[in-house]
Every structure is written in structure tokens, then in C-alpha cells.
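C-alpha cells for chain A. Residues wanted.
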């Protein structure tokens, strides 16, 4: 699986839709397979995020004895990942995310970086290069 440009715990800005302009922390990132080929391999996959306090939906839930009361609860709904932008922790602006590979000695590190301020956001992966 490819590295994610938006991860759990990131602060994002909603850039499209009814909730446009709202900010929040990413609670969950997941994907849904929309279509599969004849062998059962995913062909069309959509990525979604759940953002804290954004796209609140009402759910009608039945009571479960000893666990919860029944009634109407409010919870966050999914937003397509293309409708949110990461807010850079360094410059505090909404930005696109890129990946940068840095080789230091025999270690190869992959970073996410802000395309506005060109600063590293966080380390994605680290590999030790054999021989060479």
C-alpha cells in the first residue's frame, strides 16, 4: 500500500462541500472498495476520512441491555479524502503534501513535506540499504 498523504491525528481543512472552511483533527482514515474485477481484485477504491466535529450525522440506535441506551446519537460521518487539505504544523496554512527521500549514509528515509514552506512534516519510513 502506498504512503498516505493524510494520516490519523493530522489537522485538516475541509475545502469542498457543505462543511467547507471547517477544521478538525482526523480520527480515522479508511478505504472502501467500490468495484472488483473477475478475480476479486480491487479495481476502484475510494479513500475517506472522519474528521472531529465535521459532518455530524444523526443515527437511530437500538438499546443494548447493559451497554447503551437507545435513541438518536450524533456522530461524525465520512468525507472523501479529496475534499480535505492538510494544515501544515510548521506554517499553519492549508497545503498540498509531497514526499521526499533523503539518503544519509546507508539509511534511506522518506518524509512527508509541506509544498508551501518546503519543511518536513514527519518521517514516513526508514530503510537500511544493504551493501553498495
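Reply:
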Amino acid at each position: 500500500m502506498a504512503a498516505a498523504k493524510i494520516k490519523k491525528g493530522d489537522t485538516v481543512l475541509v475545502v469542498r462541500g457543505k462543511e467547507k472552511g471547517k477544521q478538525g483533527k482526523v480520527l480515522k482514515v479508511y478505504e472502501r472498495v467500490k468495484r472488483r474485477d473477475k478475480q476479486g481484485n480491487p479495481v476502484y477504491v475510494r479513500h475517506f476520512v472522519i474528521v472531529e466535529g465535521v459532518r455530524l450525522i444523526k443515527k437511530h440506535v437500538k438499546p443494548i441491555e447493559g451497554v447503551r441506551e437507545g435513541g438518536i446519537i450524533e456522530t461524525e460521518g465520512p468525507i472523501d479524502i479529496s475534499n480535505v487539505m492538510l494544515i501544515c504544523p510548521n506554517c499553519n496554512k492549508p497545503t498540498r503534501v509531497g514526499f521526499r527521500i533523503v539518503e544519509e549514509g546507508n539509511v534511506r528515509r522518506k518524509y512527508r513535506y509541506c509544498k508551501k514552506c518546503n519543511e518536513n512534516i514527519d518521517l514516513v519510513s526508514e530503510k537500511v540499504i544493504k551493501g553498495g
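Residues 91-132 form one domain. The chain has a mean pLDDT of 91.
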